[in-house]
Structures are given as C-alpha cells and as structure tokens.
Amino acid sequence: MNRQTETAPLVQAPSLPGPHAGYMPGFGNDFETEALPGALPQGMNSPQKCNYGLYGEQLSGTAFTHERPERTWCYRIRPSVRHSHRYQKTELPYWKSAPHMPDDVTSLGQYRWDPVPHTDAPLTWLTGMRTMTTAGDVNTQIGMASHIYLVTASMVDHYFYSADSEMLVVPQEGRLRFCTELGIIDVEPREIAILPRGLVYRVEVLEGPCRGFVCENYGQKFDLPGRGPIGANCMANPRDFKAPVAAFEDREVASTVTIKWCGQFHETQIAQSPLDVVAWHGNYAPYKYDLNTYCPVGAVLFDHPDPSIFTVLTAPSGPPGTASIDFVLFRERWMVAEDTFRPPWYHKNIMSELMGNIYGQYDAKPKGFVPGGLSLHNMMLPHGPDRDAFERASNANLGPDKLDNTMSFMFETRFPQHLTTFAGKEAPLQDDYIDCWESLEKKFDGTPGRK
Predict the structure, then answer these.
(1) Are 259 and 269 in contact (CB under 8 A)?
(2) How far apart are CA 261 and CA 308, in angstroms?
(3) pLDDT digits over 220-229, tens only?
(4) How far apart are CA 138 and CA 140, in angstroms?
(5) What does the pLDDT read at residue 1?
(6) How far apart are CA 149 and CA 123, in angstroms?
(7) What would the DSSP string read from start to end of 157-201?
(8) Cα 123 from Cα 155, distance rounded (Å)
(9) I want to staple 315 with a disulfide (CB 3.0 to 4.6 A). Which of 182, 278, 324, 368 is the partner?
C-alpha cells in the first residue's frame, strides 16, 4: 500500500480495519509488522540470509540484561552503519540541554508566559525548537528539558535522531507527520506522540503553522503509572496507545542526518533515505495516544485527591516513589465533592511543575493562562489559585459541576528546572504574573467558629 508524503512515497504495511488503520494497538506490546509479504523472519531473529536481501539489525532501548529488555529487530535495505558517515558539529542555537544555567537569568520564581508567537520564517522541527527549561544532566542521562516548537516547513531529505533522549510531543496547533524508521505517525492537538531514543525520523507539516510542547526525557523511558488501589481500569488504558505499521523508503538521494549526542548536534551526509526498514518486530517503538481517551478518576464524596491520579505517563528515577518525569493531564471532568475547596489547593512540594495549556481555561487560573501558554513553579516555591479562583470556589454552590472545554498538562520532575536565556529574555514572559496573588486578603479575625 502506498502512502503519499510531501517528499516521496513510503511503502506501508496493510492497515488494520476501522479506527486502527495504519496503527497497532497496545502499550509495551511485542509487535510484528511487514510492508512486504515474507520480509519478517519467523521463529528466529537473525537468519543466515534474510528475505529480499535485507539486513537484520537490533535497536535496543535498555541494557540487554534488563528484566524485560526493550528491543526491536529491524529488517532493512541497508544496515544503519551505511546511514552514518563522518560527522561534523552543527549549531541549533535555541535547543539547549542540561546542565544549562545562564548567569543572567534567575530561575527562582513563579513564572508564566504567553504563547510564543508564530513567525513568517521557514522553521523545521530542528530550527523551530525553543528550549524553555532544563533539569539534571544530559551526560549522565538524568533529567529532562522542556521545549516549545514552532514548525512551518517540512524536513526535505533531512533526518534526525536523538541519542540523548526520548521525546514526548504535545501538539497545540497544526498537524505534523513523523515519518520514522518503524512507520508513520500523524499527530494533531489533543494527541501526543512518543519518539524513542535512537529512532531516526523526518518531520513533515500536514497543516500549519504548527506549535506545541516537547518534553525531552534524558532518563528511563516513559511507562504507564502503577495504578495501586485504582485497579485495572480508567486513566490511560494500554489499548489506546497506537504503534505504527511498517513503512519504508527505497530512495537514492543525497540526504543529511542530524544527531543530538551529549547535548551537541552533529551532521553526516549520506546518499539515500535512512527510512528503509521493511519489517520489524519488538517492543521498542514510537506511539501516538489520543488524550480524549484518558479517563480521569477523582473524589466522589469530599476532599481533593493528589494530582498524581491524573498521571498519563511516568518516567521512574532512582529513589522509589519519586518520578524523574510525570506527564499529567487536566481535562474535562465532573466535580462533585461536598464541602470541599475543589480547585488545586495552595502548596509547595519537592516536584518542579511546568504547565502548558492546550485549549480552554484552567480552573485555578481563570485569567492569563491562555492556550499555548506555559507556567513554571519550581520545587519548594509556593503557588496555587489566584484571588478570583479562590473566592469563586470558596463561595460556590457545591452541586455537581462539569469542568468543561479545558485541557492542560504538566511536565513534573523531581529536579529543579532552570530557565534558558530564551525563556528569560526572549519568550513573552508575563512580568506581572507574581502579582496575581497580591490581592489575597487576610480573613483571620480570631472569632471562634468563623468560616
């Protein structure tokens, strides 16, 4: 089956019927898919000779001795060593990696930004990336970075992969296509994509301009959170994650491959497309996920549960119970708790919280936190509802209330997040954000029983 892209046709495996067209459902499954019949060996991984004259090659995402190794066997037209040549450094000045702590920017504070504006400049996935915060150390594979992407132009005969990180992509405007070694993923607002470390891909604009958010995960890869007493259902269900079917290009054309390695960027020139995997099987693959399928759970009598119940994906860290990154979703839901202050309460905690607004209005900040905007509340800094949100929630008639037309998210990490120069000096920072709590008034008067 041929699927037309902007630059060249990819030969794609036959699609599953209905809603799974072009994708295979499941999270962490052992998938198998082939774009040509008989291209995938059966009963073994490395036959003496592969069908169609293909080369067998393994892509590993964990150590071989991991209790459940994550790896994918690829059967490709050329081994990837032919898609790698001499490297030279290149610069992407707006894409930063941890540790990155510019002296002229203060990261201690409560910050909020308006949407980074679009531009008429032709920006690709690489040149349109704008790093907002970094945390940890890319060289020791600990921590993360958060980015805004602005994309107006497709990558043509240009490919990319990150040796540093897994990429979680959260679109806010426009539609993108990720043409990867393992198949095609199309994403739009209210969806996310997860691109594994080491996977080669090209990014095309299906409908632009495109803007969104990226969490670059240096550490252990994202997984579904443990559900504990919640049990088997609700939250993000594994069946709603979709991995692509095999698709390949057999194209002889001068191409550039850019690699991110230890926070630096390098280019190599090759004579063909590297997207030449004809068949693959394994459990190390890209995914897409429809955020509309996330089933939130919450309090049905009183009090406010911790926001951890809204976790979609989590990347574990060394200390048990302390995530390197949590990806948390705040979407439409019913509020029914009795005698309860329903918005998020005032708090400071060990985690650093970077929030983004996909659409609508966030209940704790009814003014100023607009779609495409970001906020940062670093670890152990107090934050919570502004005065209007506090007064409204404190005096509301607490019948069942539908929180509607809203979708925000959080990249939460146990590491302090440091602002980049772009975030501190070029991005549209709301200088008056800290003043949103200024009008909170003293209500205490010492009267017994007064509320």
Answers:
(1) no
(2) 32
(3) 999 999 888 8
(4) 6
(5) 30
(6) 9
(7) SEEEEESS-EEEEEEEEEEEEEEETTEEEEE-TTEEEEE-TT--E
(8) 9
(9) 324
pLDDT of 338 > 70? The answer is yes
Per-residue pLDDT tens for 196-231? 999 999 999 999 999 999 999 999 999 999 888 898
Name the CA radius of gyration of the chain, rounded. 23
Q: How far is CA 385 from CA 167, 343, 392, in A?
A: 31, 7, 10
| Residue 282 buriedness (CB in 10 A; 0-12 / 13-18 / 19+) | buried
Coil vs helix vs strand at 18: helix
Topology annotation, domain 292-436: Jelly Rolls (2.60.120)
Q: In whole angstroms, what is the distance from residue 370 CA to residue 361 CA? A: 7
Residue 134 Cα distances to 93, 165, 268, angstroms? 15, 13, 27
Predicted TM-score of the model (pTM): 0.93
Q: Which residues contact 172 (CB under 8 A, 6 or more apart)?
A: 115, 189, 211, 212, 213, 356, 358, 359, 371, 372
**272 DSSP 8-state letter:** S
Nearest Cα to 373, choosing from 312, 445, 430, 291?
Answer: 430
Q: Which residues are catalytic?
A: 304
* 8 Å CB contact between 130 and 115: no
Domain boundaries, the chain: 292-436
What are the DSSP calls for 345-371, one per residue? PPB--SSEEEEEEEEE--TT-TTT--T
DSSP state letter for 235: B
* Dist CA 210 CA 171 (whole Å): 8
Q: How far apart are CA 354 and CA 377, in angstroms?
A: 6
Q: Given CA atoms 423, 425, 427, 432 in this order, what sign does their dihedral have?
A: positive
Phi, psi (deg, nearest 5) at residue 157 = 55, 35
Least confident of 125-134, 265-274, 295-304: 295-304
Task: Output phi, psi for 279, to 5 deg.
Answer: -155, 155
Give CA separation, 35 vs 2, 4, 48, 74, 241, in Å: 10, 15, 21, 12, 21
**8-state DSSP, 233:** S
pLDDT above 70: percentage of residues in the chain: 94
231: left (phi over 0), alpha (psi -120 to 50) or beta: left
Question: Does the N-terminal peptide bond of residue 196 adopt cis geometry, omega within 30 degrees of 0?
Answer: no
Burial (CB count <10 Å: 0-12, 13-18, 19+), residue 446: exposed
